[in-house]
Amino acid sequence: MANETGLDNLNKELAGVIPQPQPQQRAAKKAPVRRKAVSKKNKPIIEKARRKMAVARARLMPGIPRITLNSFDIRTLKPAELREMVLEPVNISSLTKDIADKSDISINVYGGGASGQAQAARSALAKAIAKAASSDVIKKMYMEYDRTLLVDDVRQVEPKKFKGPKARARFQKSYR
């Protein structure tokens, strides 16, 4: 009996020193969060393009007139030949320049090399501009100028096989 009262006293002292966890109260059910309705005017246009091993995604939104490539300004892209290649869909006509001047365009590219990435970014940018246009005039213009602006070029390097230095070539045969 003396032990039980001693344990009870110890438990009471510890209860005063160490905070005991309180039973959790059930949270009231919250109403589901409603998304803001995005008007068709402010809805982003997202397009994807591929070239060799590179994949590019372009997002076109109305707003500040700028073009970014992997979060860098397009004007900082070096060499200049690749920059001109990426900007080719914008510089084709005054209609495409007007669309680009009224919109914020961001392009993300990954995979492949520099040339493949530039060609994929070019194609994604052209697809986004063509989709932003209200008519098919720009689409027809792009198809006449260069079909690969709107249609992805799916060709890739053929992998090397054994018994040869390249994909199709075979090692030279020697009899001696």
Short structural description:
The chain has 176 residues and is an alpha+beta fold. It has helices at residues 2-17, 80-87, 94-101, 114-132, 137-145; strands at 45-51, 54-62, 66-69, 72-73, 103-110.
Folded structure, characterized:
It contains 5 helices and 5 strands. By secondary structure, it is of the alpha+beta class. The model has no long low-confidence stretch (mean pLDDT 86). A hairpin with a 2-residue loop joins strand 3 and strand 4. It is flat and about 100 Å long. It has a domain of 105 residues: 2-Layer Sandwich (Ribosomal Protein S5, domain 2). Helix 2 packs parallel to helix 4.
What name does CATH use for the topology of the domain at 45-149?
Ribosomal Protein S5, domain 2
How far from one another are the termini? 105 Å
For the record, what CATH class of the domain at 45-149 applies?
A: Alpha Beta
Strand percentage: 15-25%
Helix content: 25-40%
Largest sheet: 5 strands, mixed
What would you say the CATH architecture of the domain at 45-149 is? 2-Layer Sandwich
Mean pLDDT level: 86
Q: What's the overall geometry?
A: flat
Strand order of the largest sheet: 1-2-5-3-4
Give the tally of β-strands: 5
The succession of helices and strands, N to C, reads HEEEEHHEHH
Contiguous runs where pLDDT drops below 50 for at least 5 residues:
none
Content-based structural category: alpha+beta
Number of helices: 5
User: Rg, please?
Assistant: 31 Å
